[in-house]
């Protein structure tokens, strides 16, 4: 679930931090930059593990800060495929069951990976929607609801990384007249139709009836 990743970065230390130990100042800057951030194709950065090498520091003209190339190891959340994890149901939608591990929320179990037969149940208010498992017993079928907060065991089947780096402005269309000076050409946020994507998502499948559903039913 957690791995050590070797990284290299150039760290800038401001002049008012020169009185501190260099390793301490660099560790703080690295955690400010990386902790709780997703690095593309690497995973969710948790915390600095250690610094393995410090190269020479330089001060460039016009900048009083020092710049040091640092080799270090960072603790990263990056489960391997087929690893079994435990989380809690955060909410349900037509996309599937969304699971949280407390420090990481972007986990999705799609409908086809739920225990079957499963069906989506929703009342008029979209805030009340849930997936349920039609559990067969000798007495007939029983609807076991996948309620928010229920503990769940799931197996990681896929991972999706999305590059969320900022992009430049869209190219102007030839048939659209230029905007008056001082007026923004960007569409309003509500009209852009773009859904914010998570930079790192885990796709899983339920690996056992560990929802607390069977334990609830048998009790």
UniProtKB/TrEMBL annotation:
| Protein family membership | Belongs to the eukaryotic RPB7/RPC8 RNA polymerase subunit family.
Protein origin, superkingdom: Eukaryota
> What is the name of this protein?
DNA-directed RNA polymerase subunit
Q: Which CDD domains match?
A: RNAP_III_Rpc25_N
- Subunit structure of this chain's protein: Component of the RNA polymerase III complex consisting of 17 subunits: a ten-subunit horseshoe-shaped catalytic core composed of POLR3A/RPC1, POLR3B/RPC2, POLR1C/RPAC1, POLR1D/RPAC2, POLR3K/RPC10, POLR2E/RPABC1, POLR2F/RPABC2, POLR2H/RPABC3, POLR2K/RPABC4 and POLR2L/RPABC5; a mobile stalk composed of two subunits POLR3H/RPC8 and CRCP/RPC9, protruding from the core and functioning primarily in transcription initiation; and additional subunits homologous to general transcription factors of the RNA polymerase II machinery, POLR3C/RPC3-POLR3F/RPC6-POLR3G/RPC7 heterotrimer required for transcription initiation and POLR3D/RPC4-POLR3E/RPC5 heterodimer involved in both transcription initiation and termination.
The primary site where this protein sits is: nucleus
Q: Which GO terms describe its biological process?
A: defense response to virus; innate immune response; transcription initiation at RNA polymerase III promoter
Any idea what job this protein has?
A: DNA-dependent RNA polymerase which catalyzes the transcription of DNA into RNA using the four ribonucleoside triphosphates as substrates.
